[in-house]
Design the sequence.
């Protein structure tokens, strides 16, 4: 058990060279650098079929989803790095968290904890950095009961944004990430200790 603030981090894409995966990695470096304890996961390791009520009735909530739900419960906060698909966050995020919201995903009810801090960052190869996906993911996370941080970051031109060390190399973006993580660690620490 640690008294440091633990942050679960994942990307909304499981593509091998996903820009959002690189952003999630940069987030984890920043969390560690600021004294938090990051746990970077890939949703590739938590696969689930497209949600279908008949499937749930027959087979229950997949073990992968139960494991992910336990990880969300077991961390002080969650940071999601999302790509933008037609202005929205990805169906992978929606499907995965819809499953996590089902009562069978946890022995506790509701399955996802109320008031767990969550933070959204986005990346895209274009000039607007996935900025339209951010409010939509923030809204969705609020619906699920997360306490959503007002601090966000969108990384534009993300194909050129990361250095060999995995960090954001444009100063304004690196400063933005630093600010987002600082505020989110404060929020998550407050939520854990209050
Ligand atoms: C179905 C689909 C829709 C997309 N829509 C957008 C979009 O609305 N805005 C945008 O900036 N990029 C859009 N893109 C391009 C993605 O930003 C780009 O493919 C990105 O690299 C995907 O994220 P990833 O690198 O994390 O896998 C779209 C890509 C796909 C496959």
Sequence:
């Amino acid at each position: 058990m640690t008294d440091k603030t633990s942050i679960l981090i994942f990307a909304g894409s499981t593509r091998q060279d996903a820009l959002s995966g690189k952003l999630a990695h940069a987030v984890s470096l920043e969390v560690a650098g600021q004294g938090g304890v990051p746990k970077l996961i890939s949703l590739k390791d938590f696969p689930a079929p497209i949600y279908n009520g008949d499937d749930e009735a027959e087979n229950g909530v997949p073990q992968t989803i139960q494991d992910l739900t336990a990880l969300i419960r077991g961390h002080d906060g969650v940071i999601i790095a999302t790509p933008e698909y037609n202005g929205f966050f990805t169906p992978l995020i929606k499907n995965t968290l819809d499953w996590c919201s089902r009562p069978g995903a946890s022995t506790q009810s509701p399955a996802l904890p109320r008031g767990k801090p969550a933070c959204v960052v986005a990346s895209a190869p274009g000039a607007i950095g996935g900025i339209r996906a951010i409010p939509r993911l923030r809204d969705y996370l609020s619906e699920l009961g997360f306490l959503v941080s007002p601090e966000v970051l969108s990384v534009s031109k993300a194909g050129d944004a990361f250095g060999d060390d995995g960090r954001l190399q444009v100063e304004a973006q690196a400063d933005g990430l630093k600010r987002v993580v600082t505020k989110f660690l404060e929020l998550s620490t407050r939520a854990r200790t209050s």
